[in-house]
Amino acid sequence: MQTNGPTQIAKGMIGVDLSGPILRASLVTSDGAILRSVEAPLERDALSAQIARLVADLGGNQQARSLGIGLPGLVDPQSGRVHFSTDLAATMREDFHSELEATTGLPVLLENDANAAAYGEYVAGAGRGSRCIFYVLLGYGIGGALIFDGHIWRGASGFAGEFGHITIDPNGIQCACGNVGCLETVASAPNIVRRTHERLFRDGTSSLSKLATNRDFTVSDITREARNGDDFALLMLERTGRYIGTAIAAIINLLNVERIILGGIVMEAGELLLDPIIREARRRSFQPCFETTEITAAQLGLDAVTVGAALLAARKHETTNP
């Protein structure tokens, strides 16, 4: 387990990110500043116990007044029920919410990870000063969230924003959600790696890439080689950007939002991915809509989910306990 930050800290709120193989938890101030963080490999078979340990490491209810959990899937933050999660299905029991409250001693909010990240960016990151934003979480899965005037738009049943499950290739592969050709099947971190592997073994010219010497490369490795000028890695990021830009154009035309913010581990590629996304979105969207929409990288990086989950949990706690 890794930790960082001071040991003597003021009372704040805790946010936890369950959206990848590493569990991250942070103690956060009311304005979104991180006071202290801990992280450890995700223990899927003992998740509530692991969260309770990390919360204790951050000071527990002695230094925090609420706990927010950001996780991938369809989440009802009012009831605390997780209706669907492809990544955490085995751990999402009906009593997960109440079990967490019992083991941590804190009021708990369960929230979709993209919603949490969007709120974090809205309050303390790239969304500051905006009235309406659409946030895209490009990680081990792909999520989206829409915020209007400080409020997450949840839709009729509470599950709006599943950007990763827009169909991008009707003839593509089956997604974990059961549909075929979702954006997630081509642009999430594991699927960028899958596509890169497939092309490495199909295209003889790609053998010149340094990626060909490592069977266990990650999306971060692809980004690193692209930054080092590897033509094949650059090609894979360019094509990924075109997929994402196509879906972004649909958001621009449909919602005409003020700002679209792109975050998650895939955005470690920075302008190597952002530039083709913007070019494709420009090509496919109505110009008056495109020209009034800023497309930008997130500012909070991998801390967005923990920050947003912490702030949302605190807001709910303060509303119910004025």
Structure description:
The protein is globular and about 60 Å long. The protein has 322 residues and is α/β, with parallel strands linked by helices. The strands form three sheets. It has a six-stranded mixed beta sheet with strand order 1-4-3-2-5-8. It folds into two domains: 131 residues, Nucleotidyltransferase, domain 5 (2-Layer Sandwich), CATH 3.30.420.40; 173 residues, 2-Layer Sandwich (Nucleotidyltransferase, domain 5). It has eleven helices and 13 strands.
Strand content: 15-25%
The level-1 CATH class of the largest domain: Alpha Beta
Q: Biggest sheet, open or closed, and with what strands and sense?
A: 6 strands, mixed
What is the name of the CATH superfamily of the largest domain? Answer: ATPase, nucleotide binding domain
Helix proportion of residues, in percent?
25-40%
Number of contiguous helices:
11
Strand order of the largest sheet: 1-4-3-2-5-8
Tally of extended strands? 13
Overall residue-averaged pLDDT value: 89
CATH-defined fold name of the largest domain: Nucleotidyltransferase, domain 5
At CATH level 2, the architecture of the largest domain is: 2-Layer Sandwich
Order of helices and strands: EEEEHHEEEHEHEEEHHHHEHHEH
Structural class: alpha/beta
| Morphology | globular
Measured distance between first and last alpha carbons: 36 Å
Number of domains: 2
How big is the Rg?
20 Å
Low-confidence parts lasting 5 or more residues at pLDDT below 50?
5-9
